Sequence to fold (1087 residues):
Amino acid sequence: MSDVVLQCENLTKTYLSGERPLTVLDDVSFSAVQGTSLAIIGPSGSGKTTLLGLCAGLDVPSSGVLSLMGFKLNAMNEDDRAYVRNQFVGFVFQNFQLLPTLTALENVMVPLELRGEKNISIKAKELLARVGLADRFHHFPTQLSGGEQQRVALARAFITSPRILFADEPTGNLDEENAHQITDLIFTMNRQEKTTLILVTHNLELAEKTERILQMKGGRLVNERVTGLAVS
Amino acid sequence: MIEYIIKIKKVTKNIFQDPWVWKMAWRDGRQNLSRLFLFTAALITGISAVVAISSLNYSLQEELDRNAKELLGADLVLNSNKKFETDIFSVIDTTKQQIARDADMASMVMFMNTQQSRLVKLTAMKGDFPFYGEMATFPSNAYELMKTGRYAMMDESLASQYQISSEDSIKVGTKIFKMAGVVTKIPGGGGLTSTLAPAVYISLEALDSTGLVQFGSRVGYSLYVKTRSEIETNKLIERIKPLSKKIGFGYETVQARRDGLGQGLKSVYRFFSLLAFVALVLGCIGVASSVHIYAREKRDDVAILRCIGSSGWQAFNIYFIQIFVLGIIGSMVGSGLGVVIHQSIPFVFQEYIPLKLQFAISWRAIGEGIILGAIVSVLFTLLPLVSVRFVPPLTVLRADFDPGKFFSKTKWLAIGLIVLFPILAAAYQTKSLLTGALFSVGLAVALGLLASVAIGLLFLVRRYFPTNASFIFRHALSNLFRPNNQTRVLMVTIGLGAFIISTLNVIEKSLLNQVEFSGGKNQSNTILFDIQPSQKEGVVKLIKDQPLPVNQVVPIITCRLKELKGKSIEDIQKDTTSIPEWALTREYRVTYRDSLTSSEELIKGNLQKYYPTRRDSVFVTISEGMHETLQMKVGDSLVFDLQGVPMKAWIGGIRKVNWPKDPPNFIFVFPTGVLENAPQIYVASTRVDDPQVATRFQRALVIDYPNVSLIDLRLILSTVDELFKKIGLVVRFLALFSIVTGLVVLAGAVMNSKFVRMKENVLLRTIGARTSQLTKITLIEYGYLGVFSAFTGMLLSLGGGWLLTKFFFDVQFSFDPFELAAIGAGVIFLTVFIGWFNSREVISTPPLQVLRKEG
Fold:
């Protein structure tokens, strides 16, 4: 049980659409163990992004229990959840979500700076070099291509050595070549850092690279299966 | 769980303990400060307006001090109808102050060239009077020659009237003086106005040799004192006060003279205070509006920071630091700019008016500007920026995620302070908490009315929606009430801007009217006196023939007081703690009429007519101030000595008199029907601007009516006129400057609305809307907003302006419809222009870029 980093029990999320309640996530339960990877797939509007947001502590469920690294996220306030994210979580987004006013190096350093750590630029530079951006330290996001921005985002995600990495369509805005490179990087770094990977994607090919796939439809978890990778 | 909470609390840092937020503020700011351009512009214009206005206010007060000193010629003037006793000199001697003296009396002089005689005010001078201002003479050494005792000087108008040159001589009493020259300007003009006679000047030492001062002669003595500071003046007054009552003399200070310069100046000060307050409020609105835009622009960045672990306060602090630092810099730049504007006024306007404006740098105004800027930066940043704390991290996944309403103690604290701020700021500017509160209530009422009009407009547009109109027209109109519309916000903001700008214009017009009326074309500057009743019609005809206006023709009767409230003057004089002697024993010049003049206002009692059948119905009115000096109130009785005939009267009313305006003015005014048969002379007043006309008129007068004296008040009015000219200029300039601040705020308000329209316009563009169609939709929508906001703002300004002129400035309400229409057109144009400018950004941005971002 101590290896479980993420535990979702009967998660439900309801929004108000005008006057009417709209359930976008309905009684979803699953868990993830340290060092494993899983993909959440499903058509648009199936609730997969909502689920990712809840699991990462970006939002709170309407009901159900959500535990991340042993912290009951729905009992915490937003600032405390932010602290948990900073300590244990990494993110990669479809739109990269870099801070446009910071250089690549500064973007990567921010999570550790938030922790109050010193002398972090060496580590950040090493990570940027690992993702192939050794000559792009002082470039601003607008001066980088989409693929390069996503590499910076990867370096930022891994600099805290997160226990769990959430990736939302990480290759959704990239061309095939860049998508391939980023996929390789995510999985390589995931293995090296022994990070748990939670991946949301439409891309079945990408999903098959994880060990487990959760299929969502209409806000419900309709199928769960292990992939060939897990079997092997 | 407890362990976890303790762990979390350990890392919570405040703004000063968290170097990361400072580092992030710098990193974000170095690339991004241009985004705060509107904030900086609003703050700089607001603060520079406040500093420039305050500096000008202080400068004007100094200018007024200087003018008041020049009008008085000294720091303190003692007046008596008896020679000053040695007690006074010994008091003044111990304080080692510089003194000058004069004695004046009515006397006949003979002009030796024509052997004509004339009643003049003879002034005998000793010492270096004036201590402030200058005695302008022609030739310039005339004053020095006069001091030798063998020469005399006279007012320019008198010399001109009798064609006296420096070769001529005049006989004063038994002594003949050679003419040293003419006096063109002399400080201490107050004496001239009260005596209503042209003056001849000799030295005090020479007065005795004229043989004019004998037992029973009515001589007025003045002692001019120059002190080293106002504190010394006050100390000296404290020391001479006991003597004043004992010996019987009055005194006048610069402060008293300054206070007496008229209602127009008080209004100008109040206008400055209002301008500074308005500039500050506009700056505050600009700051809040621009920070609101900035916070919205930073929403995505904050969501990312929140996602990777920043707390809400940390995110808030990053932008707060940026804005605060920029606020301090902006305040300093604004203060500097205010000083530059203030200092440049004399240079900018030098060519237009040949006046000397002495504007020293006011460090007090600069300090106030920086402190105000810092307060405004903090206070008006808190409310819009506090939303940053509550940006949900989920926004990184869903850009349109709405977290709903949130409760924040900081938000309510900021709202409380913001409500309090204008009250305190207005109270500081106007030196009255009540006025401050009323200003703020006025603003709140204006805001409420603007919001009501906006709601009413929305209702009307929905109710009478033109369903058959073209798509563009319908779409633009429906933009006003569709979800997320900003109609109310924009109408309130634009309307408030229009309201403030228009109100300033209305007040400016009303004040300038007042100033022009006081110091301008309508005011009399030439007084004719000693007109015998038989000459009255002839003199009036002569004035009209020039042609000059006949402003006043009033009868004057000289009298003294015999009794006050049933107590004889002699008995009152014995009471040393009672009324000053000069007020009891002086000669009063009174007139009779049943109405008020334009320079008078009845503040107590009423004007009562005289009924010959009732002996107890002589009700006179008394001027405000003198009723306090004589300790009289409405209903009190008094007895006048009308050249030997006692006349019992009662105080029927108290008049507030604007003394410099339209002379002659009177302390006592009788009703008609009482004094018509008393020995009297007439005084007429007119306005002469052209010196050649003045000379021609004076010569004609001396030929036809040699006994009629003429006094040219231009000598005195020139000082007051100069001051009013400066004030009028400053009022116009400052109003213009505040209007510029208002325009910056308007620009901010309209720019703020671009976020709402951005996505809609991009969607329309995506489905095929042409540039011209989008532009037309934008122009029509903003045109509506501009028209209704400007119209409402201007209507409100007429109401607000009327209230302010009546109750705050105490001047007559006046406005220029063309200027108001121009302001309205300007507001509409600016609203439409900025709306169009915003849409340009949408049109030039590829739709996909916006849609992806909104995704």
